[in-house]
Amino acid sequence: MKIAIIGGGLTGMSAAHVLAKAGHSCTLYERDDSLGGLAGSFRVNGVYLEKFYHHLFTSDRTMVRLIEDLGLGSDLVWNPTVTSTWYVNRIFRLATPLDVIRFKPLSLVNRLRLGSLAIIPRFVRDWRKLEEITAKEWLIKWGGRQVYEVVWYPLLRNKFGAYADEVAAVWFWNKLKLRGGSRGKGQAEHLGYLVGGFGRALEAFEARLRDLGVDIRLSSPVERVVIENGRATGVVSNGQREDFDLALVTTAPEILLRLAPDLPPDYRERLGRIKYLANACLIMKLKRSLSTTYWLNINDPNIPFVAVVEHTNMQRPDEYGGHHLAYVSRYMDPNDPYYAMSAEELFQAYLPHLRTVFPEFSPDWVETLYAWRERYTQPVVGLRYSQIRPPFRTPVQGLWLCCMAQIYPEDRGMNYAVAYGEKVAAEILESGGA
Ligand SMILES: Cc1cc2nc3c(=O)[nH]c(=O)nc-3n(C[C@H](O)[C@H](O)[C@H](O)COP(=O)(O)OP(=O)(O)OC[C@H]3O[C@@H](n4cnc5c(N)ncnc54)[C@H](O)[C@@H]3O)c2cc1C
User: Fold this and answer.
1) Residue 310: which CATH number?
2) Contact 95, 106 (CB under 8 A)
3) Which CATH number characterizes residue 407's domain?
4) What is the pLDDT of residues 96-134, one digit of tens each?
5) Which atom of ligand 1 is nearest the CA belonging to 35?
6) Which domain holds residue 128?
7) Nearest CA, atom 12, ligand 1
């Protein structure tokens, strides 16, 4: 078969890998000038750094397998990391059970209830029941209202904004399970990272795909999927039409709606119900470290970012010429004014807040600022999402969809991008491409 794959993120790359190995002719269309999508990198002091902060959890076995398969397994390291929370003018370390016991903003009983939320998710037998209730209801049921208001609501609101109350318990359960499960000695969280950046894995993966004969077209946004007589027959990119037997779209569903305006109305309506948040990350290359925390949750409605992720508290600064690297992350609607801001504008808007959280911080610590933004970064998983989630096969013959919004009940992540990319390719092969 002659197959067009639209989107050169990890999903598209993984699908191309399986399909090309099975002997099919694959063309991978990527809008940007490099592969990797949300997991993509740029270079800092000659070393790959992700545009958006990235790490692996110990349960991310498919991504670990890919890294090993690409010959990079010996450079995958698992480091202990510290998670903390900014709440009422203080940073509280919340990395281990002992930290939870010491978390003063909650009564002792509520600290125990907060701690129990690290264990309860492991005992959920049937996640389908969690589709029926919101994260808010579920968290209040198990942790109580004070724990919800102090710890969870600020996080939900900062991440999902106006959608915070709609998020289903499934999404939150899965997050707690992932973070609670990625623990090593002394119950400290251990996170995985590829020394030299995940960009090395993308580079090796791209070389593998080229060796397999995949035709990789960078800077080639697909403008239209051609549908004729109820069948996908080609794509248009940079104004040129090319015929294919099958098209696999790996972008957000909203993009598919634009690429294929003639999709059946009920399917369009279904895809249209899937909402995505945008994200902008300010990256600061610094002379000094902000704190000892890797992941700092911001539980304060007056601060316009959801987390500060100090990458060089997971990887050593000497890997980046001794510089410290910190991401300041904000999820938002794409029409939010922060989404359009330059790196310098974001920095100026964040500066008073950075000074509140890190009182010693001074602008002359900053060597360079970078900013990356993407429109489709986090699907919003509402109640009974399994009824909205589209299948891989679309109603149009020869047109398939595999994207972050189908990853469920798990949440998006590199691991699932690879796993789902492989899964859709297996289904395509099994179906003979129909
Ligand atoms: C802030 C942030 C932090 C994250 N942290 C982590 C983490 O710590 N660990 C982890 O495992 N995961 C993390 N992720 C998630 C991870 O990056 C994604 O789940 C994964 O990369 C998604 O891959 P994908 O291929 O499905 O989608 P994408 O990466 O979005 O790929 C889609 C591709 O389609 C391309 N495209 C769009 N339109 C067109 C078009 N018309 N024609 C051609 N190409 C097009 C895009 O340019 C893009 O390359 C994070 C994501 C964000 C945003």
Assistant:
1) 3.90.660.20
2) no
3) 3.50.50.60
4) 888 889 888 899 999 999 888 878 888 888 899 999 999
5) 49
6) 97-180
7) 413
